[in-house]
Amino acid sequence: MLKPAYFYTNKDELDRLIYDENCYEYITLVNYDDFDQVEISKDDWIKIQRVSISKDGRILGLFNAGWSERNEKVNNLYLIKFKSKFINDEDKETARQDLEDFIEMLINDTKFRYIQFCALEENPANRLYRSWVDKYGGKVYEYEKSVKLKDGKFHNTYDYILYCKRWYE
């Protein structure tokens, strides 16, 4: 079930889940900065934040979209599935469907012309992101050694642009 993050979790719990999962290295990048912590927003005014919840109330994922009213676009995404919290195939399917529902929600929102976000080349979700470009229309740009992370190494990145429904109107 896709639910507003503010009502179903808190910053401390999400920080713990992210670091327990050891997934912070692959989180979609925002302006090529490091990821250090999550801030929970009380409304959707600047960030749209949802959590994927299992039937028994466990958090399976965090989906966060920052957006700019002035530019009418989503300008970053944090898309995290907490795979260590999956107990069965139903949890995996719930998180997958919730992520798809979250992207569909953004694509169909009339406030946005497009969604732009960046991901590390090593991110295993790049295949999924490319499928979204094929499904919704958009572009992918590759940048070599464009970001230096905490490991001290430079990494390649992909910039993704997904066209929202409003793009075509």
Core attributes:
169 residues, 34% strand, alpha+beta, single chain, Aminopeptidase, seven-stranded mixed beta sheet
Instruction: Give the rounded overall mean pLDDT.
Output: 87
Give the termini distance in whole angstroms: 31 Å
Specify the CATH architecture. 3-Layer(aba) Sandwich
Give the count of helical stretches.
4
Q: Strands across the major sheet, in which order? A: 1-2-3-4-5-7-6
Helix share, percent: 25-40%
Q: How many E-type strands?
A: 7
Number of domains: 1
Using the alpha-carbon principal axes, give the shape.
Answer: globular
Tell me the series of helices and strands, N- to C-terminal: EHHEEEHEHEE
User: Class, according to the CATH hierarchy?
Assistant: Alpha Beta
Instruction: Quote the beta fraction.
Output: 25-35%
Uncertain runs: 30-35
Rg is 15 Å
* Sheet of most strands: 7 strands, mixed
Please tell me about this protein's structure.
It is globular and about 40 Å long. The longest helix has 20 residues. About 4% of the residues have low confidence. It has one domain: Gcn5-related N-acetyltransferase (GNAT) (Aminopeptidase, 3-Layer(aba) Sandwich), CATH 3.40.630.30. A hairpin with a 5-residue loop joins strand 6 and strand 7. The protein is an alpha+beta fold. 27% of the residues lie in helices and 34% in strands. The chain contains four helices and seven strands; from the N terminus they run E-H-H-E-E-E-H-E-H-E-E. A seven-stranded mixed sheet has the order 1-2-3-4-5-7-6.
